[in-house]
């Protein structure tokens, strides 16, 4: 069974556009119509831009038309502040390119997720480290140095904690503060363990909170908010069904290298993979997601990098080496 079909049957949605494209291209052994790829290279990161340009591309990818930028930086896991600053500069550059803000535009930063669950706490953590200045523009304009843009931020929590749809809360703040742009940060689900806390995705299509782990929430996008929405996310979890499938796929790949085992490989019913995986996981395991034991430190590192990238992109007048002095 093809990965895309198996994931659909298991109810797994790929948050990462670059992963969805990789799977489709492997299955088709050809480029995906209506989708364009641009690759870039930096000292400590590689950047892959997936541009969904047509309705055909939307249908194939399962994602709305728009631009999806993935920054892969394995050294995020290395405890090196200098390298993290350079990765943050890449984030700032890509965010600036995607946002295209004018000098007077104001921005609302929204940290999605549950601050009581570490793998889902990326958004609130980023908000804690975000340089907010909207109040200074109103109450202390004399403190505005270095061309600080008007930025506000909040973390609305999740439906289970507040009883209010996240999109409703954000819409209320948007209507009240009238931002030119909303930046929504959320934790993502990935199909690759290697991508956990090492990849950063930016998209100008908005976001559907919780979709990667099977929760269907109201969308936070231009249509629902009335202003452009850029989604930023970092993978923090992998679905257990994905890990099980990748292990079986690796085993079958080994079968193909042995003439004796190849006959056995050819006799395997692809549809049986789903039954095997579902049988191993059991009823409760269908919603099981996995995260590393060091997720606390990883969330701390990644939230600092994302907040630094946002700060440098939104306040370009501040020197990149000194902007942290403005943090609370």
UniProtKB/TrEMBL annotation:
It is an enzyme of class 3 (hydrolase). It catalyses: Endopeptidase action with P4 Glu or Asp, P1 preferably Glu > Asp, P1' hydrophobic and P2' Ala. Homotetramer. Keywords: Hydrolase, Protease, Zymogen. The lineage of its organism: Bacteria, Bacillati, Bacillota, Clostridia, Eubacteriales. HAMAP family: Germination_prot. Its EC number is 3.4.24.78. Autoproteolytically processed. The inactive tetrameric zymogen termed p46 autoprocesses to a smaller form termed p41, which is active only during spore germination. Initiates the rapid degradation of small, acid-soluble proteins during spore germination. Residues 1-15 form a propeptide. It comes from Heliophilum fasciatum. One of its GO terms (molecular function) is metalloendopeptidase activity. This is Germination protease. It holds the Pfam family Peptidase_A25. Belongs to the peptidase A25 family.
